[in-house]
Amino acid sequence: MDGTMRKDHELHRRRRSRNIGLLVVLLAFVALMFWVTVAKLGENAANPWG
Amino acid sequence: MSEIAAVESGRARGAEAEFRDFVALTKPRVMSLVMFTAFAGLVAAPVALHPVVALASLLCIAAGAGASAALNMWWDADIDAVMRRTRARPVPSGVVEPGEALGFGLGLALLSVLVLAVVANPLAAGLLAFTIFFYAVVYTMWLKRATPQNIVIGGAAGALPPVIAWAAATGGVTAAPVLMFLVIFLWTPPHFWALALFRNEDYRAAGVPMLPVVAGEAATRRQIRLYALALVPVTLAPAFTVAGGPVYLAVALAANLAFLHAAWTVARRGPEDAAADRYRAEKRLFGVSILYLFALFGGFIGDAALRALGIAAAWPAGF
What we know:
The structure holds two protein chains of two kinds. Chain A is mostly helical. Chain A has one helix spanning about 10-40. The longest helix of chain A is centred in the middle third of the chain and has 32 residues, at about 10-40. In chain B, helix 6 (about 100-120) packs antiparallel against helix 7 (about 120-145). Chain B is mainly α. Chain B contains 16 helices and no strands. The interface of A and B includes residues 17, 20 and 40 of A.
């Protein structure tokens, strides 16, 4: 196995910025949709069977 | 970094865009004004939304505005590359590929409309879809390069966000949001013509038929004065709707005085005066116009806060 350390290319840094940004946006979207669902269910959200 | 350097570095960077380049595609500064006017429409509406639903609705409107901006940048990349003000934008600078901008804009448009339909209601979603279509197709693809009335008619797209927000809260559209629409609709031409006066050479080089390019500076200055006058009754009328109140009326009176003064100064000047001080009055009018709109919609928010606190005095809300 080649044990040489490889320096990240500028391209990798840019791609990582996009990936992390997209991850944050997706997580925020999921959280928002969850809270919208809770809000729309109203008081029943805590006890959906009751 | 100078704009030219930004363009050159963009080309050198190739097509691998960063996250911030996609954020730039959404015109964040324009989006902030859209969010503010939509927020005012939301809190001024007589029906209170759950805060989370209100936040989600606002984000959908912002995403729709961002989608319109991305589609605008995709279509206008050729003229954006010619103008100093716009040539560092992600598509003309080569940082984002045109196809990426198109896909991003269409995807964001679809997502924002569908989510708003689920979160709020179909009327609000329909209005958002119409707004995106109007800005991207009617204004960007058709009017902008065809007529000096481009921003007069195209201004309708920028005027709709408070109406969408009102519809999201109440499920309908009444006189108050229509007046909010008219305020932004009549504000747009003098705002952009002030910019066009001191960026005239840019628009001329790009072949965009803005009013100063087609009709000349003198006609543009006269039109600015006319629109500033027309704005007075239109901006005072919402004070007597369910959305208005004493705060809005006081703000509208003061804002109109400042705007009329700035517009009058511009209308009285000739090209020689403007050239002598490098369009100082025109730049000032542009800045005042932004503050003017923020102040007016801030007035709606102020009255909504008074009502929420239960300290609103009896007010003659006629409609």
